[in-house]
Design brief:
mainly alpha; elongated; DNA-binding; Tetracycline Repressor, domain 2; homodimer; 191 residues
Chain lengths: 191, 191
DNA sequence: GCGACTGTACCGACCGGACGGTTCAGCCGC
DNA sequence: GCGGCTGAACCGTCCGGTCGGTACAGTCGC
């Protein structure tokens, strides 16, 4: 018998992507399988393969969503302040977005782990996007090194958490986040 | 026919661990399989399982070697300077060691990716070891935030490279490494 | 207004190969 | 003769991907 989920809160495609992210975080990128994703999302395997015809296309979609999501959130936060966003404003908001820990966003970076484990070639896309970002922050008044070091520290915190390597308490984390935002702001001033 | 590698430069155990590291870097942690490791190291599968009776034990050994290796290199570099190493000296040398790119060391961090992909529980060991390190640098004259931020930036660079996310040219990288070593040194001074 | 047909979204059994792991007889240099 | 392997067969499970089918909303000719 054919049983449709009672009012699925999200369209299946989104549920599948969420499930994939969460699976990576909770079981490790090596255990991201099509069966597991489908089950976790409450969709049949056939249903999954309807939306993502191969595992690669699932990985691509995960990365795509992650990248777009970050960009969109930065844009939203900048827009909230009104006027055309300055580069330093964008940098600062990006730092904030990446360090956000609201449950719906926490899992997003898992796409990076999944892609790097399964199909490292997909990372090229992310690398290009990162490169463009580096080119932008290099023009900040504080100079390339200053901004790049702040961005690296943000990466270190985020990636460390994704890999479950980060040993900081939530108190320490708050202090570090505060320090990072301040450091990002200072990249906007002449050194 | 039985073909022994002409004068195996290393004992099989080491060759296997090297092969595992390199496989992770070159094909992604998801493609780390026992057959592939054995083949890559020029050892039979039976031989691999003689040294590492399960995949988990291979992963544990990879992590163990990585952690010991870093510690040993820091100690060596400090010893070369003579006298009991100060905390700031250790921190500085650690930063240097982690950012080293000599071919034999480049692959070592791959253990982190492999463990996190296959058996995230193994990361607990690394996290503890990282925690001890954080507790030490927190007592530097520059204070907790300053040192932790430098360490995070080092992590960001290293992990970014492991994930093939890092977009920096070798020129940019050198500038960043120099800046990081300088920043580490400054953690030894009162702010 | 109704039957034929189309497109979208999804199901789940199944297949072939890969993977982790086992077993075991044997070889070879120290 | 024993520690350190080799080489190959084998097992059960898992995994990515295929395929034939189902439910159903919409639409178009008549």
């Amino acid at each position: 018998m054919y049983f449709r989920n009672p009012i699925p809160s999200q369209p299946a495609r989104e549920r599948l992507l969420d499930a994939a992210d969460r699976l990576v975080l909770e079981t490790g990128a090596g255990h991201l399988t099509l069966d597991a994703v489908a089950k976790f999302a409450g969709v049949s395997k056939g249903g999954l393969l309807y939306h993502f015809p191969s595992k690669d296309s699932l990985l691509e979609a995960m990365l795509e969503r992650y990248l777009n999501d970050v960009e969109a959130q930065v844009a939203t936060r900048c827009a909230r302040r009104g006027g055309a966003p300055t580069r330093i404003e964008q940098f600062r908001e990006r730092v904030r977005v990446l360090l956000e820990l609201r449950p719906e966003r926490r899992a997003a970076g898992a796409a990076l782990l999944a892609a790097s484990a399964d199909k490292p070639a997909l990372m090229a896309h992310c690398r290009r996007s990162y490169r463009e970002f580096v080119d932008e922050i290099a023009t900040l008044p504080g100079g390339f090194e200053r901004a790049a070091l702040v961005q690296l520290a943000v990466d270190g915190l985020v990636l460390g958490e994704l890999l479950q390597l980060s040993p900081y308490t939530s108190g320490e984390r708050s202090r570090l986040v505060k320090a990072l935002i301040k450091a990002a702001d200072q990249c906007g001033r002449m050194q």
